[in-house]
Amino acid sequence: MEKTFIKALSDIVGESYTLTDKESLACYGYDSTPELESKPGVVVLPGNLEEISRIMALAHDAGVRVTPRGSGTNLSGGSISFDAGVILQTSRMNRILEIDEENLTATVETGVVTSALHREVEAKGLFYPPDPGSMNISTMGGNVAENSGGLRGLKYGVTDDYVMGLKTVLANGELLKTGGKVVKDVAGYNLNQLLVSSEGTLGIFGEITVKLIPKPKTKKTMLVHFPQLEMAALTVSHIIAARIIPATLEFLDRVTIKCVEDYAHVGLPLDVDAVLLIEVDGHPAQVEEDAEGIRQICERHNCSFFQTAASADEALKLATARRVALSALARVKPTTILEDATVPRSCIAPMVKLIQETAKKYNLTIGTFGHAGDGNLHPTCLTDERDQDEIKRAHAAFGEIFDATIAMGGTITGEHGVGVAKKKYLPKLVGESGIKVMRGIKGAFDPKGILNPGKIF
Amino acid sequence: MEKTFIKALSDIVGESYTLTDKESLACYGYDSTPELESKPGVVVLPGNLEEISRIMALAHDAGVRVTPRGSGTNLSGGSISFDAGVILQTSRMNRILEIDEENLTATVETGVVTSALHREVEAKGLFYPPDPGSMNISTMGGNVAENSGGLRGLKYGVTDDYVMGLKTVLANGELLKTGGKVVKDVAGYNLNQLLVSSEGTLGIFGEITVKLIPKPKTKKTMLVHFPQLEMAALTVSHIIAARIIPATLEFLDRVTIKCVEDYAHVGLPLDVDAVLLIEVDGHPAQVEEDAEGIRQICERHNCSFFQTAASADEALKLATARRVALSALARVKPTTILEDATVPRSCIAPMVKLIQETAKKYNLTIGTFGHAGDGNLHPTCLTDERDQDEIKRAHAAFGEIFDATIAMGGTITGEHGVGVAKKKYLPKLVGESGIKVMRGIKGAFDPKGILNPGKIF
């Protein structure tokens, strides 16, 4: 990277926020995706929207490529610069600018950590539902770029259901303002929703305005064991068929259960096929009825154990099994390939079965957990990237799993993004006309192709 | 229009579905927008997705322009062909293809009337919330193209909150499939949400899959009179501040109240400044508490009358005042200019006041009603297009109203679309970079510019 370019960057943000030392470049050379690594040419940390604009204008003129990055929790290689370009690191922009109680909105800078926003709004009796697994470190800008989901998606939807306004810096440094505090807006194309889940390829978010809702009055947390996988899957279907929409309806399979128990000792049995974690929230009367309805459905489907948390502490303990699932799996082997195949929720049972059979076929350890109510599963392959033969088998297995997902009317990614990791599967899903249209959109926003290059297509 | 082109159209759909007689061209020459009229060259009524594809491929090759049209309830001139092109009329495609109770989705052809879908899903205990004023005639395809709102937007959102999957025919006749029955999908750009509210300029919808939710167990309808406008507006704010989210929170001003009473004789008083129609729904215990909370807030703000419907029939009667507002206003004068300025809900009071002052300043009759809870108002000017001086004043007045809306952080259209009627205001709202990006997107979908030309920009 040219010295004059780096000097110009440091003129914008200051020397201490322009990193070129070997250690920094190494640290910003990977994210949470296994097997991927590539050092950037420089890391720059802007302090405000204006500085992002100036950085982009500079990079645009110079034809230098820029990859925006929040906390690097990306799971598809989306926050790695593969061409020794600029990493634009947003963590300094971490102010919650406003919580507007009258309009039920919050406006934050892009680098605000998701759970920090949760705490602030909940203190005011309000609620920002999206709660990705990474919420204690991931940033709002990253959540918007990836359209992050979480455990409350079934009832409350995901990030794009809450984004109302964005201040986005385009590739050439221009500021694009979309939406705001109006709850209804049909003036021109819906750029807001197009920018959500654009994975940093269309613009860099500076400020984000999200919708808030009243905090649910109460909730009830249940943990249920099922000796048979099919019965757990049927339970999920029948809860929905009974017109009950839990906030959370999560699933762990046998492999995951064993890893969680080895790790966290929460008292999970090792002889069951599946565990469901279920949470209902809302008005106390509604919660009471829903919980009782769910208990009856679970019992009709031969659950071997049904526990309702008696207190908030106990609820937290029950939820631990699900919350630690990824960590528990990740410690078993050096490399964890976490996927997020997503199917219509009616296909949960055949999907879990297919994953287990594919694991057996390729002689792999795959634990599956995830958002059963959303049809969004996380088959997680425990492997070692030094074992190239096993890695090859893992990729072959996931190829088959994605093909099956698409055949069931599902998608290759429910919440982790395409990034570079799933680029090769995208054309299968969206077809040639889909890719062509997406490339055209990319061209409309970023004709020089300098923003997060090489991602998605 | 060339005879060979018309012959080729009729080869696709049959002669009886290719209309060129004078009467038909006149009938399809206008929609629900005042002051606008323009005869198409031909009207074609495809019977299925395949036929739409073939029509578009033909038009694309010939460079002929095509305007899709549902029931012509468009309020911004969006369904008029201004260049004597093809009107592609979707009303034959009116089958509800599937209601999937396990995945909570409905899949419909584009020409299905919205209220027909309501009836079908409600018979199964399910619920499709969007309920635009035109729901008894408007089509689902039109609702998606315009991102239609309705009276239940405050709690349930609008059309784009429910669209999960689309089969769209692109300008060149290619089929684009986006989304489906998965509730989470981040594979590539969010084309689904970009297509919603694209006003027929990016593609023609053939099939639409929407999300359903369980039907609320019960509801309560309230009608409240306020001698003072400010008190009605404050009531809206304080209901939300009390963390109560009604399904419906609608407003009528003094002009509208008078017209409604003259028309429907529902017993509205003529000496009040404002009427609120409020509906809460959900679990009975929640509904009971919310209604009581609302009653207390209304009384604290000096309402002069508060009625809760004792039965479903009575609820319907109370809602009549709001449901007939547009018809009641429309009968007063030959020309009704219905707008949908939308502001953050905290600005409802200053906005209504500004509309009233502007009406006085320009010596106009403007009645205002609308979705107060959403900040989405319908200032409605009662005029006569033969009185060119008054029409001129009306447009000047709305120009000022839109400027004020934008200054308050609002938008020029909350649910009616830009069409041709609001094209000149769009650049003020979205800025040059917004227009540039939108034009780029249009080019990516429709490089020849044949789809609903002249709309939006």
From TrEMBL, chains A, B:
List the PANTHER family. GLYCOLATE OXIDASE SUBUNIT GLCD (PTHR42934)
The cofactor required is: FAD
Q: Name one GO molecular function term.
A: FAD binding
UniProt xrefs under PROSITE patterns? FAD_PCMH
Write down what this protein is called.
FAD-binding protein
| Gene3D superfamilies referenced in this protein's UniProt entry, alphabetically | 3.30.465.10, 3.30.70.2740, Vanillyl-alcohol Oxidase, Chain A, domain 4
Higher taxonomy: Bacteria, Pseudomonadati, Thermodesulfobacteriota, Desulfuromonadia, Geobacterales
Q: Which residues form a coiled coil?
A: none
Q: Which Pfam families match?
A: FAD-oxidase_C (PF02913), FAD_binding_4 (PF01565)
Keywords (alphabetical) are: FAD, Flavoprotein, Oxidoreductase
Family of the protein in this entry: Belongs to the FAD-binding oxidoreductase/transferase type 4 family.
Tell me which species this is from.
Answer: Geomonas limicola
Q: Which residues form the FAD-binding PCMH-type domain?
A: 36-215
